[in-house]
Known about the structure:
- The complex is a heterodimer of chains A (413) and B (386).
- Chain A has helices at residues 28-46, 72-79, 94-102, 165-180, 194-200, 213-221, 223-226, 276-288, 400-404, and strands at residues 2-10, 15-16, 19-20, 56-61, 87-91, 108-114, 122-128, 136-144, 151-153, 159-161, 188-190, 230-236, 239-245, 250-254, 290-294, 300-301, 317-321, 325-334, 345-352, 358-363, 376-387, 390-399.
- Chain A has 413 residues and is of the alpha+beta class.
- In chain A, strands 1, 4, 5, 6, 7, 8, 11, 12, 13 and 14 form a 10-stranded mixed β-sheet that branches.
- In chain B, a hairpin with a 1-residue loop joins β5 (197-200) and β6.
- Chain B is globular.
- The structure holds zinc ion.
- The site of zinc ion (ZN) has 8 residues of chain A, from loops.
Amino acid sequence: MTTVTAVGTYLPPWGSARGRVLGPDEDAVTLAVAAARAALEQATTAGSATAPDVRRVVFVTRELPLLVGGNAAALLAGIGLPDDVPVVEQVGGGPAVFDTLGGAEAGTLVIGVDAAESGPVGAAAALVAAGDGAGVGVELVGRVVRSLPVLSRANGGGARDYSDARLERERGVGVAIERLDLTDKPVVVAGLPAKQARALCAGVPPTLPTTGASAALFAVAALAEVGGGGLVLAVEQGSATALRVDGVPAVRRDEPALLAPEKLTRTPGPDIAISLAAYERAFDAKLRWDAGACDACGTLALPPRRRCLNCGSEDGWSLTPLPRTGEVYTVVTVHVPVPGLPTPYSLAIVQLDGVDVRALVKVTGAPAGTVQIGDRGRLVLRRVAVRSGIPDYGYALYPDAATAADAGEGAVR
Amino acid sequence: MRRVAVVGAGMTAFGEHFGLGIKELLPMAVSEMAAHVDKGLNRDDIQAAWFGELTTSDGFPTGILADTCGLLDIPVTRVENACATGNDAVRNATYAVASGAFDVVLVVGADKVRESSARSTFWEWAGLTRDMAWDYPLGLVAPANFALHVARYLHESPATKEHLAMVAVKNHKHALPNPKAQLRYEITVEQALNAPVVVAPFNLYDCTPQSDGAAALLLVSEDVVERYTDRPVWVRGVGLGLDRVMHQHKKDMTTFPPTVKASKAAYAMAGIGPEDIDVAEVHDCFTGVELISYEDLGFAEKFGAYKLIENGVTSIGGAKPVNPSGGLKAKGHPPGATGVAQCVELFEQLRGEAANQVDGARTALAHNIGGPTAVSAVTILSSQRG
Ligand SMILES: [Zn+2]
């Protein structure tokens, strides 16, 4: 039995009634960071005033951005966790997320992400209480692991769809559920189309935005709509895992209102070269959203620099977290084609709240050209560019106007 | 320091010279300059050269200048200072003559922008002038670099996009009689406002074209000036100014502090003020930059630039004509050549020989602003020895 302190969810704004899709500046890491931050913010408000105790991160997805090179450091920096927290990068779907959650050690942050180009995409994270923290109890009921790769994607190969829905239903999900030998009907099922899920459930289950790894945790979050705990099932082709959740967890949703994807122009041209030396020097400040604070006078500099902007001291500086909200000082929109970057895009200089620091960032989550001088927003981790095949992460301005439309209960403002 | 005079000036036409490489453009400009020295020039008289080139078309710039122009026995120094390269080359050569080290020196500026595809040029320049980790991957292409300033300027000042369009209309009109100009056609305010967006708030006609070209000047000391001409143009002041490199570190983006610093230095050296300038070539890589520069150069009060363009003050026939050549906007902008070519235009203006002559011009100013809006160079020329 483990205790879930909080669940956080994230959906990109872009998409259609069929589901959300990635923005041009998003991947599995940026999605994971957004959901994880929502979960940790919820855990902070729900529990003690101190930051949640995260001892381990398990990142489950089938769309890891870097197979060689790794995503763990970017994930920890984006979430704001220390660099000595172990990270498991796991390839898997909904059942794998429940396997992890059901047997998780105290202080584990489990993140499930769906980030396939074809969508639907989304991310959700659950924090397992460290010690005897508050939350809802979660218990593994059973699992069955079988193979029926109706959808497949081999290492280095393209995706294939065997395209036989009845086979999948009867010999995949059907047999898996039969083998689980459940004593009662589930209240939510992750990994199936809405109609199929409804047929298996007691009552009318909430519709989930995704079907992969994140769907399992979206299902746990959806217990608020069910109105109580119960049996929750995650299925994936021939496999399934069942969890019993004994209540409604605290949930924070970062789920902006739906926007039609922008028509973007992608221009072929020379690769945007990367200097890995420069990348490594900038990494901590750039991904953790830290300034260099002058040891002599405290003046903040972004990026950190040897010689203080104010007092001229060269004696040293220390990384200090920057505010994550601010106001647009100036903004422009690039329409001309730029090789390697989807156009159009807006660039803004943002005056951060409460400090004498401005940042030059791209605008995210809103159509290019819609942000004006004086608009407010928050700074979020995004994939700024892909340079020589390497994701280059940094911060972007998410305008408040873009999220305000869906600022319902629990939404991140 | 000794007084320094310009006694010869020449340039290639600016344009898309697909058929001419840097090795053709350089000797063309130098030979045109030499042919226009009133009393003739023996090339052996040239004691040193300064060469402004932003990029490195066909490689090693100083060697290419020396090799292609027959100057193998003199020292040649490359100057690279972003879009302020041309006037900074003039500045360095001026000091070399003023100091007494040399009596006769050559200043050349050139660039071959159209050696790469039109699509990739802005991006290649961005790679030269941006922080590799923090700014480059954001796609801060050259027009965006200036648009960040102009967007804020339009927000704070009474100027509007119509005023930007008026600058484009004026400079296109000025370029009409200039045989060296790249864009010799008139446009209307409506055309400018309705043109495709490049980087908002800039439309197509707010932007300089991509240009190839070269320009050359001969600078001599007061001790030898009479050997070359009886009508010299004096270099009365030079100045260079810098600023913080990253936009996020510039406190007030409605001004270019490098221009304020460079012009202050040049005015002080010349012992004159902005009111004494009869004609100016101002860096109008983007229309809004010309407006902001009116204020930074002291031609207008803060946020008063729109009145000058609205009232025709800076048109030919106005009280302070700006960019009679057509400016970067219509004459063209091969970065290394631009500042030198501004001085070529002003040399002709001050001798009463310009294609688009400003009546009675006696004192003139040339201005560049460039890089990530972090460097400016200003040169003040006059027919008056001072
Ligand atoms: Zn300091």
